[in-house]
Give the backbone structure.
Amino acid sequence: MTPSLHLWLIPILPLIGAAINGFFGRRLSRQTVCAVALTFCGAAFLMGLYVAARFSSLELPHAEYLGHWIRSGNFMVNFEFYLDQLTLVMLLVVTGVGFLIHIYSVGYMWEEGGFYRFFSYLNLFMFFMLTLVLAGNYLQMFIGWEGVGLASYLLIGFWFTKDSAASAGKKAFIVNRIGDFGFLIALFLLIKHFGSLNFSQVFSSIAQQPAETAGVGLLTSIGLLLMVGAAGKSAQIPLYVWLPDAMEGPTPVSALIHAATMVTAGVYMVARSHVIFEHAPNALTVVAIIGTLTALFAATIGIAQTDIKKVLAYSTVSQLGYMFMACGVAAYSAGIFHLMTHAFFKGLLFLAAGSVIHAVGGEQDMRKMGGLRQYIPWTFMTMTAATFAIAGFPPFAGFFSKDEILARAYEANPAYWFIGVTTAFITSFYMFRLWFMTFFGDYRGREAAQHSHAPAHGHGHGGHGDPHESPMIMLVPLMILAVLSVIGGWVGIGGRFEHFLSPVFGEGATAVATEALSRSTEITLIVISVAAAVLGFYLAYVLYLKRPELPQKIADSLGGLYQAVVNKYYVDEIYADLFVKPLVDGSTRILWHGVDQGVIDAAINDTADGARHVSDSARQMQSGNVRSYAGWVAVGGAVIIAYMIWMGVR
Amino acid sequence: MVPVSYYLILSGILFSCGVIGFLIKRNIITIFICIELMLNGVNLSFVAFAAQWQHLSGQVFVFFVMVVAAAEATVGLAIIIAVFRTRETLNVDHVNLLKL
């Protein structure tokens, strides 16, 4: 029995912060609100570091039991925390990146209304995310899973007076609900067939079963349903549509929730459930296909976006696709490795984009930026590190993780690898497009500002004067993340990261994997993927710096295809026609006009009308005329006397 | 000795006069007098029976009725004055504020 680390403190700390700011924040000064939020979030991070420091002395997996939650017959659910190598990686990423983004938010949100509300939600998110990561059973994970969805909804709709933000929040919540439905059914199946939701119990009983190689059996169904849940949370085809809209939220939220942590929960869940997927190869294939397609699909949309945050949003969808591709070819540790490096560089990209938006006074359209590198040099440098990292240039972090995934994909099926490399090329292209459009050339914001004086977004930064560098409190997190984006991948050199995670995912699989590819093939793959990145860089350089008139010509010559890409392949419209409109029409015509107005309202109104008619006639008795009342009394008296006389006679 | 039925008939006539007056008159004072008429009609029947049965309770009852009637007259007249002050009318048909 290893000593207790009081893991429950880690999620509870941010919850306390959220409660303080949520209940009393209105009356506290901004400084106090920040102090509360940062203290509790930072304390969680310190706890994470403490756990990491004690990690080697622990007997793994380390489980901490808090108490019973549900006891129904033989079925039991406990409050329990579970710690292994996978948890530790997630824990450090979530608390570390989360803490940095908290610091950054202080600067970014300083002038916004509802300051305390923002930090309360942010801390609430940390609570739920850490609950999800540390959970010892599926139900507890599900609490965190739903909770991060709630926090995401609240933060997307943070500027709730803006119509688009409010509806983006709703969209995220509803689309996630579809995925959660799949997750829930998977949990019900687990309860029914294994009588438990505890990770170690479920996995050990599944491990004894033979793998389902043909058809869709129980394990395959569970795997597929879990994947539905993961697709909702991690924005995979067909449920990715909410993530680009989620960019309506404040930029630190996009960085924390919609890039670094929450959206990777699906990847974490699939990796955590790897035993189930290993026994259901068909489900695993579906995971790989969905991931691969999403990676390519979202990357192509990213090419034509002009909103700086939308480009990053589609890029996030695409990178999440990579992670699922990795999980789908059973390279879970590669997926988690990419999850970690992605948290660094994509968190940084969003924060730097936020800094850019801050600098140009709330403008998000890249066509109105340009030449910003001389105005905001620190932002430029950090963003450069992140851009090179995501494009996969060595020795930046993204190179190692992406290369790992591509190598494992090649080994599983060269088709995955081919799409992966194509996506890497597209990724490099649209990221450098963003980089060139934002930081190079001439600043295009001034003419734009003269054409339209109205600020593009209700941001409150005031878009006057030259772009200005962000305050230090925003730059320091950027610099730390930039350093991590550069060196974060080095932990994977020589398969060290994989080796660290191997107790979770099984030593056997990884050992075979490293043997399978010969040295020369491996080097060829690396060369090809680096070449793809360089090609993307060069193409973006030619199109957006050397000859800026070319993109328009190409777009014109492509015609319909270009229009389709700009309009995101009309997926939102198709969903609207296919699902939303029939639902709205059906609800309006049948449920609202038919059932509600026709039956329920009609019944109530008719009852009320009937009562009114009856009382209208009964009311006539109450004339208000004293003598008529007296008359009634006299008549009543006469009737009683007549009755008595009549009875007496009888 | 006058038979008791005579008293009862007179009592009935007095009571009926009170009831009819109460119903057809509009002046509150008149209505009030009609109430007194009804009470006294009833009183007459009480004393008639008391005399017939040689029993005092009928007489006692009449005293109670008179006391109550006196009290009622005081309160009633006070109400009438209050009504007249606020409404400036003694017509009961115009005192109908409680009607919707």
Summary: Chain A touches chain B at residues 619, 622-627, 630-631, 634 (CB under 8 Å). The beta strands of chain A are 62-72, 75-83.
